[in-house]
Each structure stands twice: as structure tokens, then as C-alpha cells.
């Protein structure tokens, strides 16, 4: 580092020495010419000697010019530092320098997590010129940058810096360019999704509600490439760098500048001496030196043979190849257009056929985990949330279904808020090597069919008049409950209920009135017993109830008394009574034994005058 004033205006010793040689050579020439005159040397010798001295003079002057230019270049790299600034540098420790990652080639982390980029190289030049030492750290968001315990932030555009941040003179300028997804029209970007970098101000004319924020420029470019956003603006250096590095295929860049950006060094604290030193160092870095630095960093993306070199060497061959390839491509494109047209027509026919037959086509690409659904199916599910849920369910089932299983049933949300039942029929598509490429199939809405099926199943289980379990179902459920008892100390109970004088009701009031009595008793039983109890009609006017895990016999009798009270007043002008038989269930009892015990005490109640509750344990 040069300290104090530079030596601009002072002739270096090399130049002084060479100048003395020129003067001495000129003096020697004059002396020699005088001697030539005295000695009367012939004219040809004198002319030859003069030419030799002239050539020596030109060579020396050329060397002087080179040394002078070299010295001027060296002098341009020197800076003037005051004694106070020199003392500051001598005492200053390592300066913590931070910035935002993912803005290559301005600053970024390489594959080894090392900080790289133009900004770092500029700080290294400043370090060389001044003796300052920097420690570099990159963060994933501007919020982390501005909340860090650092002294300076490097590579900060003027429009990204907080209002209270002091900025150095710019060391890099760049015009912003537009980058869009290839599917978008650059002349129609109103109400399109803008990819913004969090912490930066939105460009003029772009609405907040149309913007999606990302932490870094690379993430915003990735989003536009993937179609999660439609377009964005960025500096030319970063857009070019990441396009080469990441091999974007769906990204189109357009030189349609929105705003200029100047990259500076930001100071978190008002350190006037440090600000002065860095600004002086930035001024001392020559424009050519900075351009070379930028080109060197930007060229580190991938070093390839240039296109011009290939053209110069193989121009004719490439021309012939291009003509041949273009001819093949033209033929292929023409054939492809025709094939696509035919395919679109076939797809449309299939779609129309699917709509008519209540079927919806799909294709699941296993490698990319992408599910392509027909438009008619998307309309069936309605909302985006429903579509996402349906996508997830279908993908999971298709990814985990057995290879030999070609259909399954699933439940999916519908646009009307209900849940539909669908049958999925599919086939696997493999390449020539037998590798699975995709799964194609159709989704059939069988909600009506499933509802009818469930209705039939319920009818097979339930009594058609009362809606209670029928005799067969009641017996099966009770047998299952008996077998599944695991707690030996648990107390269960079985109850038989019979309507008193039911034949007289039918004979006196008719069978419709009798059916109404049975229906009302079914409702009273549902109202009086627990949801965990098994309630069924096991005969004409006979009902059975199995109560698992009861606290006591009195608990059962209380429930039965409630039934007796409610049914007695359920039908106006027709008092109805019941007789009840109760038995407790032991661990080793079978259904027939339980039924027999309850039946015996039921008929004991009838023999005792009816309208009574009798328990086997109290007989």
C-alpha cells in the first residue's frame, strides 16, 4: 500500500538513466562526426553511422514510452491516505462484510460454500490498496443482512438499501432487463404474476397483489422458469449468469430496461474515516481494471469454446449440417403438426365420450410425479382446494397400488360440497426396456351406484318397519359382542321386550295401527337406550337389546322402566304396555343360553299379569 502522496510528476530513475544514455549517445555521435571530418572519412561511412545512432535512439525512446505507461498505470493504483486514515487502518481489525446470497456473478456462494463474485473481488482490491481486512458472509434474505451485526454490506443496489444507510460511490452499474416465461406475451403483462425479491421496492406500475416475493434473484428466476410466476426484472449480469449456470429452457430475456441499478458498499454506522478510505480506494480502481475484473468473474460460469472459433474452423461443414438438420426438422415438424392435429381430435373425441359416459381420463407420469387430469374432471371437483386434495389422493393411490391391481375405489370432494365415490381403472405404460413411463386410465363416478349398494346393504341388515336391526343381524352382533368380551369383571345384560295383547290391537284397530305401535316402540327404544347398545326386532312383536358394560342391574331396570312409561303414552287413546325379561351375561355363556334365560323370565312376567319387568337374578 502506498502511503502519503504519490510520485506523480517525478521522473523515475529508470527513465533518467535511459535519458542519460540517449544524451550520451547523441554527444558521442557529434564527437564521432567531428573525428570523421578531421580524419576525412568517406561519406558512406558517415551516413551508415548516423543511421545506426538513429535506430538506437528510436529503441530507447520506445522503451521509455513503455516504462512511462507502466509507471502511469502503477501511479493510478496509488491513493492518498492521511495520517489519521493510516493510523485507523493500523488499528482496525477484521471488518465484517455481509450481503445477500444468490445474486451471481455480483455475489454468491459456490459449490464449496465459499463467497465469490464481483463484489468480493472489489473488496479484495480495496484490501490490496489500503491494507484493510474483510470477513465475508452471505445471507439468504435481505432481512438477515440488515439485521446482522456487521459493519458494511457489499453489493447493495441503491434501490434496495434502507433510507438511513450511507452508501459508497458505485463500483458497478447495470441496466435491468425483463425476463418472462416463454408462455407469456411480453406486450401483455398486466395482471400477470411478478417475481419480486423480498426487501426491494416494486418497479413502477407493478401492483402488490400481483407480486410473489422470493429471498434471492436466483429463486425468482427459478419461479418464472417453472411457471410459478410470469415475469420479473433483474440486472443483466445475474440474469445471464443463472441462465448459463442453470440451463433455463422456459426463460426469455428481453432488453426492455425498467430502471438502472448502481451497486455500492453500504455502511451500517456513520464511520467517516472508513467511508473516506473505501471511497478513495474505489476511485483508485481504474475503469479498465474493473471491467477486466467483471469479465473474469462472469466468465467463471463455464468456459467453453466460443461460437466464432467453431465457425471459423468448421464454417462450411456446419453450414451443410445445419441445412441437413433444418431439412429433417422441417419434415419432422410438418409430420408432428399433422400427428398433433390428429391426436388433438382423438383426445377431443375421448373427452366428449367421457363426458357422455360420466368418465374422466387421466395420465400419471411416475418419474416426475405429475398428474394430468381432463378438463371435465377438474370442473367436477370445482375449487382449487378440492383439486389439490383430489390430486394428492390419486397420486398416492397410483404410486402405491400394486402392479397387478388395475382398479380401485376412492372418495373425492365435489364442487357441490358433497363427497363422491369414484372407481379408478388404469393400465401401466412401459418403454421398450420395460421401464414404467406412465399410468393412464379413467375415473368413473359411481356415487349413485354406491349409494344404491349401501341402501341395499342396509336393508339386508335392518328391519324394514322399525329401522332397527333385523333378527339375523341382531343375533350376529350379539354373538360378536359376547366373543369380544376381554374384561372378565365386565357386566353385560340381555333384555327381551314383548308387547302385551298385541294380537288384540291388530284385531281391534287393524294391522296399520299395529304397525304404528311397532314403529313407535322402535323409536322409544332408540330414545331410551345407549348408542353402544344393540337394539333389534327379533320377532313379530318381540324386541331384543344387548347392553355391554353396565354398572348394575338397577341401571338396566331403570332403562326398561323408561321404555314402559314412554310407550304407554306414545299413542293417543291407545294405552300400550310391555313385558320385560332381563338376564345378566356371564363370561362363558352362549347366545342360546342367554336368550333362553331372558325368555323364561319374560314369560314369567306375562304369567304374573303382564306390564312387568322381571330379572333372572331376581326371579
TrEMBL record:
Cell inner membrane listed as a keyword: no
The keyword Electron transport is assigned to this record: no
Enzyme class: transferase
Any single biological process term in GO: cell adhesion involved in single-species biofilm formation
One GO cellular component, as annotated: plasma membrane
EC number from the UniProt entry: 2.7.7.65
Top-level lineage group: Bacteria
Gene Ontology terms for molecular function: diguanylate cyclase activity
Domain GGDEF positions: 490-618
InterPro entries: Diguanylate_Cyclase, GGDEF_dom, Nucleotide_cyclase, Rev_trsase/Diguanyl_cyclase, Solute-binding_3/MltF_N
SUPFAM superfamilies reported in the protein's UniProt record: Nucleotide cyclase (SSF55073), Periplasmic binding protein-like II (SSF53850)
Signal peptide residue numbers: none
SMART domains recorded: GGDEF (SM00267), PBPb (SM00062)
Transmembrane segments: 52-70, 318-339
Keywords, sorted A to Z: Membrane, Nucleotidyltransferase, Transferase, Transmembrane, Transmembrane helix
Name used for this protein in its record: Putative Diguanylate cyclase
Amino acid at each position: 500500500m502506498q502511503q502519503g502522496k504519490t510520485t506523480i510528476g517525478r521522473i523515475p530513475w529508470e527513465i533518467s538513466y535511459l535519458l542519460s544514455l540517449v544524451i550520451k549517445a547523441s554527444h558521442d555521435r557529434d564527437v564521432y562526426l567531428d573525428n570523421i571530418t578531421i580524419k576525412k572519412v568517406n561519406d558512406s561511412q558517415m551516413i551508415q553511422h548516423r543511421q545506426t545512432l538513429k535506430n538506437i535512439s528510436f529503441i530507447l525512446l520506445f522503451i521509455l514510452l513503455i516504462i512511462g505507461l507502466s509507471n502511469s498505470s502503477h501511479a493510478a493504483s496509488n491513493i492518498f491516505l492521511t495520517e489519521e486514515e493510516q493510523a485507523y487502518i493500523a488499528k482496525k481489525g477484521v471488518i465484517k462484510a455481509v450481503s445477500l446470497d444468490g445474486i451471481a456473478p455480483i455475489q454468491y456462494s459456490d459449490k464449496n460454500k465459499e463467497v465469490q463474485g464481483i463484489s468480493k473481488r472489489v473488496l479484495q482490491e480495496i484490501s490490496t490498496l489500503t491494507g484493510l481486512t474483510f470477513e465475508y458472509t452471505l445471507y439468504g434474505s435481505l432481512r438477515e443482512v440488515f439485521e446482522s451485526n456487521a459493519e458494511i454490506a457489499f453489493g447493495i443496489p441503491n434501490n434496495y438499501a434502507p433510507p438511513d444507510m450511507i452508501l459508497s460511490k458505485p463500483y458497478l452499474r447495470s441496466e435491468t432487463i425483463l425476463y418472462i416465461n416463454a408462455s407469456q406475451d411480453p406486450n401483455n403483462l398486466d395482471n400477470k404474476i411478478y417475481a419480486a425479491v423480498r426487501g426491494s421496492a416494486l418497479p413502477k406500475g407493478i401492483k402488490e397483489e400481483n407480486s410473489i416475493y422470493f429471498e434471492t434473484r436466483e429463486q425468482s428466476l427459478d419461479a418464472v422458469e417453472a411457471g410459478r410466476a410470469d415475469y420479473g426484472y433483474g440486472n443483466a449480469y445475474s440474469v445471464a449468469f443463472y441462465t448459463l449456470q442453470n440451463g433455463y429452457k422456459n426463460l426469455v430475456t428481453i432488453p426492455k430496461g425498467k430502471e438502472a441499478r448502481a451497486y455500492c458498499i453500504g455502511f451500517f454506522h456513520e464511520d467517516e474515516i472508513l467511508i473516506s478510505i473505501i471511497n478513495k480506494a474505489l476511485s483508485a480502481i481504474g475503469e479498465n481494471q474493473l471491467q477486466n475484473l467483471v469479465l473474469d468473474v462472469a466468465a467463471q460460469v463455464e468456459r467453453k469454446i466460443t461460437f466464432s472459433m467453431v465457425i471459423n474452423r468448421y464454417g462450411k461443414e456446419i453450414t451443410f449440417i445445419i441445412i441437413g438438420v433444418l431439412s429433417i426438422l422441417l419434415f419432422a415438424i410438418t409430420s408432428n403438426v399433422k400427428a398433433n392435429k390428429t391426436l388433438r381430435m382423438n383426445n377431443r373425441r375421448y373427452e366428449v365420450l367421457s363426458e357422455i359416459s360420466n368418465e374422466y381420463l387421466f395420465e400419471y407420469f411416475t418419474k416426475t410425479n405429475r398428474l394430468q387430469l381432463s378438463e371435465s374432471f377438474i370442473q367436477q371437483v370445482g375449487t382449487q382446494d378440492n383439486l389439490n386434495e383430489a390430486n394428492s389422493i390419486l397420486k398416492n393411490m397410483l404410486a402405491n397400488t400394486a402392479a397387478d391391481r388395475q382398479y380401485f375405489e376412492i372418495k373425492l370432494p365435489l364442487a357441490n360440497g358433497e363427497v363422491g365415490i369414484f372407481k379408478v381403472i388404469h393400465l401401466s405404460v412401459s418403454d421398450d426396456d420395460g421401464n414404467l413411463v406412465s399410468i393412464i386410465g379413467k375415473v368413473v363416478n359411481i356415487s349413485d351406484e354406491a349409494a344404491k349398494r349401501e341402501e341395499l346393504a342396509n336393508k339386508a341388515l335392518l328391519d324394514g318397519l322399525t329401522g332397527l336391526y333385523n333378527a339375523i343381524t341382531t343375533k350376529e352382533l350379539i354373538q360378536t359382542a359376547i366373543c369380544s368380551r376381554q374384561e372378565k369383571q365386565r357386566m353385560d345384560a340381555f333384555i327381551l321386550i314383548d308387547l302385551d295383547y298385541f294380537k288384540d290391537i291388530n284385531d281391534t284397530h287393524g294391522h296399520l295401527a299395529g304397525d304404528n305401535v311397532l314403529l313407535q316402540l322402535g323409536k322409544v327404544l332408540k330414545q331410551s337406550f345407549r348408542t353402544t347398545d344393540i337394539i333389534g326386532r327379533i320377532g313379530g312383536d318381540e324386541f331384543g337389546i344387548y347392553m355391554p358394560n353396565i354398572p348394575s342391574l338397577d341401571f338396566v331396570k331403570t332403562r326398561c322402566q323408561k321404555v314402559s312409561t314412554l310407550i304407554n303414552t306414545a299413542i293417543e287413546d291407545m294405552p300400550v304396555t310391555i313385558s320385560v325379561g332381563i338376564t345378566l351375561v356371564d363370561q362363558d355363556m352362549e347366545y342360546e343360553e342367554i336368550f333362553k334365560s331372558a325368555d323364561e323370565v319374560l314369560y314369567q312376567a306375562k304369567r304374573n299379569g303382564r306390564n312387568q319387568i322381571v330379572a333372572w337374578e331376581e326371579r
